[in-house]
Write the structure tokens for this entry.
Amino acid sequence: MNRRRRIYEGKAKILYEGPEPGTLVQHFKDDATAFNNQKHEVVDGKGVLNNRISEYIFNQLNTLGIPTHFIRRLNMREQLIHEVEIIPLEVVVRNVAAGSLCKRLGVEEGTQLPRSIIEFYYKNDELGDPLVSEEHITAFGWATPAELDDMMALAIRINDFLSGLFLGVGIRLVDFKIEMGRHIDGDMMRVILADEISPDSCRLWDSQTNDKMDKDRFRQNLGGMVEAYREVARRLGIRIDTDRPAATGPVLVK
Ligand code: TMP
């Protein structure tokens, strides 16, 4: 397994060459980072949970006709994906004020936004992923105006789906970050959802208590990160194999 060609290693995931041309293997690590890697810990079990939660969401998006890179899960930590050319933008959709929006604009955390807001950040660790406008994106050629339209339409559809999905299990979708890529399929090129959607990339608050069930538990040193992720998976009805009680051996049936 270790002899597979590693294509890219990020903070929380590794991409390996896939079994067929045009495919990759996306491997979820247990590493948790925040503030552009200034805070880093290995959180036992996080990779397995994110793999399963992201699989669950991407499968449903695929079924709804929202194109994603996800093909199928391979094992506890890995999934087979379509290779894409990543567009160097982080697309953030916000429904409720939190995080950098509160800091930047002085809005109180938890304020319901008058409508969903889409923001773009330029993916560049050295610059700390700065907020950019559509003008910057098209002027510097990070995406074309047509791609930007596609990205916004995808982001809105994904927000609608995710908001309903989480609301149904008692979770408020505060905001999330997605990444998209260009996928070449025959002589067609289109923008599809890539990367992951998991409690690492979303803010998820319990609808009743407002308890944080996402990576803010790590960012803000609240503790209980894996327990919160496991609870998100449990509410979505995702069975994680490691939850199975240890085998007790054969049982004599009389
Ligand atoms: P922010 O409020 O810090 O800008 O984050 C907005 C959303 O994006 C939140 O759900 C967390 C997610 N996010 C990432 O997934 N990766 C990042 O590097 C950052 C800064 C935010």
Summary: Residues 102 and 122 are 19 Å apart (CA to CA). The domain at 85-224 is CATH 3.30.470.20 (D-amino Acid Aminotransferase; Chain A, domain 1). The chain has a mean pLDDT of 95.
